[in-house]
């Protein structure tokens, strides 16, 4: 609970009308994409880093939690006020500050929408590769906090690969800059990389310096159909082994396909159990050669049909369908548990077989789709939300995550730990490693005012 005297002080720190305390006003900030609900005591809309610094100094005096929030599209509960307190809504930090076309860098504020930024740099002939499925809603700051991946991760990497530097407010109220605005720099500890992916538990980001690339000259998009799901999974490794690195290599199983069938106008062959969505980019000549090489590999690996997108509209149709998979699953069942596990590419067939076993064992549909090129699959356990099915769903999650660890993988590839996976941290990390992480958190945030209750139980 935020003391009344602290609420009065908050009103002095930020602009008039920038503090919400009414229950109806707070509802939007009590939940996110997890659909879990925790009511905050208040919501503040700061406009400057100095205002945030003052808010932190007040929080350390009065001991109330501060929870930074971007677009609310997170899937692990990282922006939820699990202990009440003040939600720090970053909506007013929404400017693209500078795009340097000579040095290929940009500075943005954290509430810039990912797709808006991508469109802006592409209009200048540049390219910002990180491409989460929620790009039309997620913010750059949220992407940085989670080190988001996305559809182009196989060739281009994740958000953290493009963050050169940050301006942040520490939980103790100091404002610091980390990193560089150059392509190289190794002075001191790499605080930038430490804050990237820390899920809003170490600092509040107020500006981000990003690396850009030249926009690829051409691209070709392909959709490949398979009658055997494991054949599709093995084909992923065959493509990489064939020395082609697609920009995107996505996998959808039969149930995932059914979820978005209405969004795909072209026919899907009967008995299709899986599809691969593949895109190659680069120069015109390289793209043509890569597309032909991909076709040969897919057909020799056992694909039943290979289709090259014939128009820009068909390309957009393919990727729009892919982006709708997650939400469309709720048309099959009213509830779901979403996991974003990662295994080595060559272990994807093992994971697919295990999912089939789990589905039969617990009598629950478990569709899978995702970034097969880098081993990151989104596994969904579909539920009717009855107590019995929820209990079985939780049992599926624990068995799934243990199997992923046994296959040499990790329990989350891009959604983060937040609150939804905190109870599984000890499956991947030893007690000394977790203790060290907690000690790092304590150095940044000695009074535990910033986003408490996240990552660690």
Give your account of this protein's structure:
- It is a single chain.
- The chain is α+β, with helices and mostly antiparallel strands and 457 residues long.
- It folds into 4 domains: 4-89, Uridine Diphospho-n-acetylenolpyruvylglucosamine Reductase, domain 2, CATH 3.30.43; 96-214, Uridine Diphospho-n-acetylenolpyruvylglucosamine Reductase, domain 3; 218-326, Alpha-Beta Plaits (2-Layer Sandwich), CATH 3.30.70.2190; 333-417, 2-Layer Sandwich (Alpha-Beta Plaits).
- Helices cover 35% and strands 21% of the residues.
- The protein has 16 helices and 18 strands.
- It has helices spanning 4-13, 23-26, 49-62, 114-122, 140-146, 153-156, 191-195, 229-241, 254-260, 284-301, 312-323, 325-328, 348-362, 387-406, 425-428, 431-444, and strands at 19-20, 42-44, 66-69, 86-89, 96-100, 105-108, 126-127, 163-169, 175-179, 204-211, 213-214, 218-226, 248-253, 274-282, 305-308, 335-342, 368-371, 376-383.
- The strands form 4 sheets. The protein has a 7-stranded antiparallel beta sheet, sandwiched between helices. A 5-stranded antiparallel beta sheet has the order 5-6-10-8-9. A 4-stranded mixed beta sheet has the order 1-2-4-3, covered by helices on one side.
- Helix 8 packs across helix 10.
- The longest helix has 20 residues, at 387-406.
- The radius of gyration is 23 Å and the shape is globular.
- 46% of the residues are buried.
- The model has no long low-confidence stretch (mean pLDDT 95).
């Amino acid at each position: 609970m935020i003391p009344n005297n602290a609420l009065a002080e908050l009103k002095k720190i930020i602009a008039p009308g920038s503090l919400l305390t009414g229950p109806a006003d707070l509802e939007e900030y009590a939940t996110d994409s997890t659909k879990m609900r925790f009511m905050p005591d208040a919501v503040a809309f700061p406009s400057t880093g100095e205002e945030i610094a003052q808010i932190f100094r007040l929080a350390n005096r009065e001991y109330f939690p501060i929870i930074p929030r971007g677009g609310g599209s997170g899937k692990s509960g990282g922006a939820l006020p699990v202990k009440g307190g003040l939600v720090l809504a970053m909506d007013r930090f929404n400017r693209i500050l500078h795009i340097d076309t000579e040095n290929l860098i940009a500075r943005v504020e954290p509430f810039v929408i990912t797709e808006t930024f991508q469109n802006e740099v592409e209009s200048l002939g540049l390219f910002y590769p990180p491409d989460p499925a929620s790009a039309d809603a997620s913010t750059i700051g949220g992407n940085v906090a989670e080190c988001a991946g996305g559809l182009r991760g196989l060739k281009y990497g994740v958000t953290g690969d493009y963050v050169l530097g940050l301006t942040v407010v520490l939980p103790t109220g100091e404002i610091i800059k980390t990193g560089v605005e150059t392509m190289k720099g190794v002075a001191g500890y790499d605080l930038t990389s430490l804050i990237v992916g820390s899920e809003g538990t170490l600092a509040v980001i107020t500006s981000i310096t990003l690396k850009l690339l030249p926009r690829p000259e051409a691209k070709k998009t392909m959709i490949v159909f398979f009658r055997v799901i494991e054949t599709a999974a093995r084909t992923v490794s065959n493509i990489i082994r064939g020395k082609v690195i697609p920009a995107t290599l996505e996998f959808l199983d039969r149930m995932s396909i059914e979820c978005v069938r209405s969004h795909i106008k072209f026919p899907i062959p009967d008995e299709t159990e899986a599809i691969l969505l593949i895109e190659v980019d680069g120069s015109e000549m390289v793209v043509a050669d890569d597309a032909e090489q991909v076709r040969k590999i897919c057909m020799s690996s056992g694909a039943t049909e290979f289709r090259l997108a014939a128009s820009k509209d068909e390309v957009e149709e393919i990727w729009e369908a892919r982006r709708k998979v997650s939400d469309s699953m709720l048309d099959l069942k009213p509830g779901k548990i979403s996991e974003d596990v990662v295994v080595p590419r060559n272990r994807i067939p093992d994971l697919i077989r295990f999912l089939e076993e789990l589905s039969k064992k617990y009598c629950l549909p478990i569709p899978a789709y995702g970034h097969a090129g880098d081993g990151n699959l989104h596994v969904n356990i579909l539920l009717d939300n009855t107590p019995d099915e929820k209990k079985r769903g939780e049992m599926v999650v624990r068995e799934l995550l243990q199997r992923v660890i046994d296959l040499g993988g990790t329990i989350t590839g891009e959604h983060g730990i937040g609150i939804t996976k905190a109870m599984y941290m000890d499956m991947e990390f030893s007690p000394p490693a977790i203790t060290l992480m907690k000690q790092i958190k304590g150095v940044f945030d000695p009074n535990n005012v910033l986003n408490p209750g996240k990552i660690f139980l």
